[in-house]
Fold this protein.
Amino acid sequence: MISKTYNPKDIEEKWYQYWLDNRFFHSEPDDREPYTIVIPPPNVTGVLHMGHMLNNTIQDVLVRKARMEGKNACWVPGTDHASIATEAKVVSMLKEQGIDKKEIGREKFLEHAWEWTHKYGGIILQQLRKLGASCDWDRTRFTMEPALYDAVIDTFVDLYNKGQIYRGVRMVNWDPQGMTAVSDEEVLMKEVQQKLVYIKYAIQGSAGDFITIATVRPETIMADSAICVNPNDERYKHLHGKKALIPLINREIPIITDEYVTMDFGTGCLKVTPAHDPNDYELGIKHKLPVIDILADNGTLNEKAQILVGMDRFAARKAIVKMLEEAGNLEKTEEYKSNVGYSERTNAVIEPKLSLQWFLKMKELSQPALENVMNDTVQLVPPKFKNMYRSWMENVHDWCISRQLWWGHRIPAFYMKDGTVIVAKNKREALRKAQREHLLFALTEADLTQDEDVLDTWFSSWLWPMSVFIPESQPENSARPKAKQGDVDYYYPTNDLVTAPEILFFWVARMIIAGYEYKGREPFQNVYLTGIVRDKLGRKMSKSLGNSPDPLDLIEQFGADGVRTGMLFSSPAGNDLPYDDKLVEQGRNFCNKIWNAFRLVKGWTVVETTENGQETKDSNALAVEWFSAKLNQAITELQDHFGKFRMSDALQTVYKLIWDDFCSQYLEMIKPGFELPIDRATYDATINFFEQLMALTHPFMPFITEEIWQDIRERKAGDSVCVAPYPTGGPVNEALLADFDLLFDVVTTIRNLRNAKQISPKTELPLAIRTETPDRFNPLEGLIRKMANVSDISYVSEKAEGSSFVIKGDEFFVNIAGEIDVEQEIAALTKELEYTKGFYEATAKKLSNERFVANAKPEVVERERQKLADAEAKMKALQASLAALLQA
């Protein structure tokens, strides 16, 4: 017996365990067409947030549909070691225990990091199960596991040997708190209120003459290499070629010219600090200026600053302003808002810094990745992101791949005592290479020191679509290896990637680059780019803002199916999702609607034939035929939406099919009277429809569809809707659908008339139809009688008594005489007639205005003429209705 109310808690854990027990999510290569998705690996430090919910719901919809279509569906899960985030968490944990990272050393620190990872690293993957994610959990990978670690190191060695990797001093984003370089995508820009400080630099050899610059970073003046002005700026032409003195330290710097300087910003003078600004660095290279780095790695001033040595950069900023004022070099300060980069992981202000790092040359490597996105070998969905992609790839910079951390893939570079670098997979191979290439046969491993840095996390995840299929030996008690030899040949390239636009360049593009470099082809065929989940105010949901609900709390409250559909109701590709609790409420209500409809159907008494007459039998058969056509139409529409990755539209198609067409219309048409039975043929057809509807809905709402599908009919052990055939549809009877559209219009209009006249739905009303095609209505009569509670239907050649309405050229008359208060109806019609007359006269006056007709757009004039004609027709109808009432 199906329960009265739908309770997700009663079924979700049960069915998820059932799917796992039957290994429906597991994939092995066979002769079927593969369908492969690799999960964008969440940080091992992570917990489920709203972005994960949206992203993984979309992936699950795609993979569940493919599985039902008979494809060998393989969704590979896994996590990313997240160097910066994980190291920060472990450092924080140790700090609470009074342990300093540097004091315990690298090996001991890594023991703590691994311990932390084993304890907390699988949380987010467990949470994804609550969502219903149908990942092949046997294939779960981790970017720091041995096989994937080796793949990263091998890639580094290969690219180095090809001359693509080099070591050099370049400007990078430096995190003074994390003490490491970070990538662009790990820098968050925030608008910050700052002080714009106007500083006077004395002109050498000119008593009392000075030049003023405006800067938000007065603490860096000691690193200045020049002052730059625009050559066309008349105010400063007399200073070209002269020198200025840096306040407080009196070091000489040249005054140079360059059109890069904006004349109308600040004072039109730019202090050039090559070591502490990327644009200044480029200007310094162009003008061959010295580079003076005055900041230590931890953000304090070093000896080169000459003053305030050892002071934090922000404390030095305040101190410098005070010193400049005392020295007479401060002209003024102003409030100023500007964007400042913050480290995503530590929230420290990023410092542009020249640093000795490892880099990967990108220009040549990136060409295939650019060409094959532009020619749609790899399709971006939506395609609007192609221009952004092209812009980035055409202006690609060398990739800083080193990080000053301990947790991660350690760079396989080994240094001899004279500084000579040997790149090899491990120290043993490095020793052999040194002995062979440098003829140093007495050299030992003890003479080699490995680079302290690790690789950027993206340098491992760019291999992800390939590396997840690398075989790795497992312990004897393991169920099976995570991957076998030959898996990559079967599953690669993968089919679809679902990810966020903000990592299009930093992850997606790099995966495409790696795919062409190492497999000679694309890593995936389609990239579905989700939007950002935002709150009602348009802000990105985040823990720091406190504006994001806990996804697990939402699942607890609304059920996983309700949350999944709520996330998809308004999330077209590439567009942000304006989240509201009403969306998941709508999802929960949809579950309840399906549940109640199933309870209704399962509660009917079934007999082979009913005694309700031939008209009911014919009406039911016609209703079945109509819904079959409606179902086929929806399946065609669904496939089109899926083919174009219109996931929200696909869900809306299913939603409308079930809520409107099946529940509101079809079940209403075939529902037997109170305590009356239904005939076997109609019931069986309805059960078959329900089964197909659950199959169509399953990718979106896996739990409730499995529960109902299992209860629809007797099932064998191991049966599941998740491996049942996905409905394929058939021909669509367009003529029948058009007839039923007419039927629904008629029924709705009669129901609205009842409401307007306050006539009970139980009161039967006679209907007369004036039409040239009565044969079209004959099959629909039984349904009109049932759904509109019409006593009898007649066909007339002239106007008949009653309220009239016109639908698609046919006129309908509903005789409501005796069911209404005549005087009240006359008053209401008179009031409506007066209003319509006023509207008619106003519209006629507008159209009589020659200036309006001459100047307005033709479509606007035509619209006004149509309004006039409609008003005239309505007045005639109202006048006729009034005349009929007055004669009665």
